[in-house]
Amino acid sequence: MRIDELRTLLAKHARPDLTTAIDDVLISKVEHPLPPSSSMSGTVMALIAQGAKRIALGDRVYEYRAGQYLIASVDLPITGHYTEAGPEQPALGFGLTLQPAAVAEVLLQASPGDLAPTTGTPSGMAVSEASDDLLDAVIRLLRLLDQPRDRAVLAPLIKREILWRLITGEQGAVVRHLGLPDSSLTHVAGAVRWIRDHYAQSFRVEEVAQQAGMSASAFYRNFQAVTAMSPVQFQKQIRLQEARLLLATHPKDITGVGSRVGYDSPSQFSREYRRQFGASPSQDAARLRGSTPETTPALV
Hints:
Elements: H1 2-13, E1 25-30, E2 37-40, E3 44-50, E4 52-57, E5 60-65, E6 68-72, E7 77-84, E8 91-97, H2 100-109, E9 125-129, H3 132-143, H4 148-167, H5 172-179, H6 184-197, H7 205-212, H8 216-227, H9 231-249, H10 254-260, H11 266-277, H12 281-288
Antiparallel strand pairs: 1-8, 2-7, 3-6, 3-8, 4-5, 4-7, 6-9
Helix pairs in contact: 1-3, 2-4, 2-5, 3-4, 4-5, 6-7, 7-8
């Protein structure tokens, strides 16, 4: 069965840092269920071969398991963890980073009648069953990890095939928007990047909407459709994730960390941090001293 070969290949080539010898291809192997962790999703297709995972984005929850894949078409702040993993049956996942330029190139080669019309603004995330054709392409790509002579020539071709399977699949609209330079999702993605780059400063939604080329009402509606959050809620998520990373290296400077990520009120920072991570900044900083917060995409 395809899924059995997929599991074998993933288990064989998994590394602690998720990377592989093929650009943009990631592999995860998790042998124990871990507590939910916060990170950025990246723009990625994540396929599970064994185990199950749960991802929270704003007020939406996505669950996917063996034979299913999740698409993230915008780099979003998420909380996720494997819900099924063990030493005898580790969770195994495949990831392919989605590059907008690569998606756009595939779209340019498609005939207009090959694709369903792209309408509205899709969510930035979606889950589907993997087709046999998609599984077959992923397996052939992973086989190249054992075929270094063929890898440079064939890996780009198979990655394009995988993109085509995604573009023409059930969640094709989510992927297609990633490669369309003037789509509403692309405009929201630009606003997401701006908020991430300027997370510590206050902003008016009208100003960010203007940068995105939308009216304030259309921007707010589309932003919420894509991210499951308002722009202000999104900024708060980014601030708290950045604060947690800073606390790992500055555990005694809680007030300073809160100020650096944009909080004028230490009490508000502590209150929102506890609500997000289940512990006060000082308690969480003590817990983090022996570990490093997760910074790699949490979907894979």
